[in-house]
Amino acid sequence: MFVIRYKKIFLSISALLVLAGVVSIAVFGFRPGTDFTGGVLWRLSFEEEVSKDEVVRILQDAGAVDVSAFEDLSEEGLLLIKMKELSQDEKPVLEAALEESAGAFEELRFEFIGPTVGEELRSRAIWAVILVLVAVSLYIAFAFRKVSYPITSWKYGVVTLVTLFHDVIIPAGLLAFLGNLNGIELDSNFIVAILFIMGFSVHDTIVVFDRIRENIGHMKKGDVFEEKVGESISQTLVRSINTSLTLILVLLALLFFGAVSLNFFVLIVLIGTLVGTYSSICVASPLLTLWYKSGKSK
């Protein structure tokens, strides 16, 4: 199978993508959304052209505190405005000031989340990701508990966790870059997207690993482990591509014809699906063969 034959090329591509994701996160960082920090999120669509700096100045002159504004890439003339707090009495004053100085506008979204709720959501999001990783590790250790030759069961679990890191860090790096480029925020939608990507990736990886387990169960004297892994990838390749392609077509339809507010969520899921499909075929199994060869040489 060409995937195993050229595994160093495929793994090098993955390493570069992961490095790019890590660098993006380290350099740009994440822009925490209102979901996690608390405060006000206001999405406005202006009929006349107005700069985000001008909107911030108008709101500050009207009495708003800690105001920031970002252009929404999904639609021209759309601004995302964040404030630490805003009372119901202050909102009409700010609306009047904006209409007077910036022209007519349409309110598309208005949310207020208290700091306590934001802290609780952030804590739950972190625990959700941790628990999923623990559950995946335990499940794979149990599912492959009878596999001990030629590679032990716990190594399947470790390789799966490595591929999960690969599948999560690349979309996360993209989000950090978009956050720096145009103020895209890390919110609860991103956590949902990450959990979805992890579930899809694990499902696809386990399908390949399960076929490997079946094939090595019939290994005879003289059979080569790498050849059995390559044979397993060949047997599951069409299924993996067809399953992913079906999902990708749906995501593309949502991206181009769905609600504008979901564009970045769908984009992250789409990138994660592509990366997850690649990793289940071109990363997980090659890593398994490298680990096997490393242990055999020792």
- The rough form would be described as elongated
Average pLDDT works out at 83
Query: What does the radius of gyration come to?
Result: 24 Å
Order of helices and strands: HHHEHEEHEHHHHHH
Label the CATH architecture of the largest domain: Up-down Bundle
Give the strand content: 5-15%
Give unreliable regions as ranges: none
The domain count comes to 2
The major β-sheet equals:
4 strands, antiparallel
CATH class of the largest domain: Mainly Alpha
Q: What structural class do the secondary elements suggest? A: alpha+beta
Q: What is the H level of CATH, i.e. the homologous superfamily of the largest domain?
A: Multidrug efflux transporter AcrB transmembrane domain
Give the CATH topology of the largest domain: Multidrug efflux transporter AcrB transmembrane fold
Number of helices: 11
Q: Note the gap between the termini.
A: 26 Å
Helix content: 55-70%
| Strand order, largest beta sheet | 2-3-1-4
List keywords for this structure.
298 residues; alpha+beta; Multidrug efflux transporter AcrB transmembrane fold; Alpha-Beta Plaits; four-stranded antiparallel sheet; 4 strands; elongated
Protein described:
The protein is an alpha+beta fold. The protein folds into two domains: 2-33 and 117-297, Multidrug efflux transporter AcrB transmembrane domain (Multidrug efflux transporter AcrB transmembrane fold); 39-113, Alpha-Beta Plaits (2-Layer Sandwich). 70% of the residues lie in helices and 9% in strands. It is built from eleven helices and four strands. The chain has helices at 2-5, 7-28, 34-37, 52-61, 90-102, 115-143, 153-182, 188-216, 225-257, 263-282, 284-297; strands at residues 39-46, 68-71, 78-83, 105-113. It has a four-stranded antiparallel beta sheet with strand order 2-3-1-4. A hairpin with a 6-residue loop joins strand 2 and strand 3 (78-83). Helix 6 runs antiparallel to helix 7 (153-182), helix 6 (115-143) runs parallel beside helix 8 (188-216) and helix 7 (153-182) runs antiparallel to helix 8 (188-216). The protein is elongated and about 85 Å long. The two termini are 26 Å apart. The model has no long low-confidence stretch (mean pLDDT 83).
